[in-house]
Every structure is written in C-alpha cells, then in structure tokens.
Amino acid sequence: MTAFDINASRKRLAALSGRGNEQLGAFDAAALGIGRYVPGSSPWERHNNGDELLLVVDGDVDIEVLDGDRSATTTLHEGTLFVVPKGRWHRLTARRPVNILYASPSEDGVERTRERPVPPSR
Question: How far apart are CA 17 and CA 32, in angstroms?
Fold first, then answer.
C-alpha cells in the first residue's frame, strides 16, 4: 500500500514552466497520475479500452466530448470529478494552469490527433 502526497506533487508541477505529468502508480488496469495543463488545448484523444476518470485538483478547465456528430463542452472546476466514457473523443482547454488527477486506461488503446475527429459516414 502506498500513500501519495498530492500537495507535494502539485508543488513540483507548479515549478514547471510548461505541461507536466507525475505518475503515481496503477489503479486496476489504469495508469494513475496527476497532470499539469497549461493554457491552450490538448490533442483530441479517445480510449478504446476503458473509461477515463478526471478529478480537477485546482483550477478550471473546459472539456469537449464528441458523441458522433454532436459536441458537448463542460467547464470543470476545482473539486469536479468527470468520467469520459470509453471510445469518446475528447480534449481539454485551459485558460490558466490546472492540475488534474487522472486514472487512464493503458496506452495500447489510446488514439490521439490534433485535428478534430470526423464522425464515421452513415
């Protein structure tokens, strides 16, 4: 059993001038960590092998999630827990630095792109 000092992680990440991640370990088959996001948008990504859990530790961030040809954007504030469903394209947009605790499925099921994903033709 391991205890993690999230406040110490936040201090280490705050010393960075850019984006950063600190791996904390694993939770079942997911990677557990804390990430510092800086102003701007992350690449689009989706996890084909499980849900992704996000907990905003401090700051605010917008998350946009695609569902077919529809898009929904939600602002996550400090203390907000959000679960991105398996297989949904999503991206984060921060206006100021924000720290997010995450539990993400393994990398072998992730896809990333800078371009907005196009829904499959019907």
Answer: 23
> What is the model's pTM?
0.91
Nearest to 49 by CA among 110, 90, 117: 110
Is pLDDT of 122 > 70? Answer: no
Residue 83 sits at the vertex; the CA angle it makes with 110 and 59, to the nearest 5 degrees, is 100
DSSP state of 7: H
CATH number belonging to the domain at 30-111, selected among 3.40.50.1370, 3.30.420.10, 2.40.30.110, 2.60.120.10: 2.60.120.10
CB-based burial label for 39 (10 Å; 0-12, 13-18, 19+): exposed
Q: Which tens digit of pLDDT belongs to each residue from 26-44?
A: 888 899 999 999 999 999 9
One DSSP character per residue, 11-71 reads: HHHHT-SS-EEEEEEEETTEEEEEEEE-SEEPPEEEETTS-EEEEEEESEEEEEEEETTEE
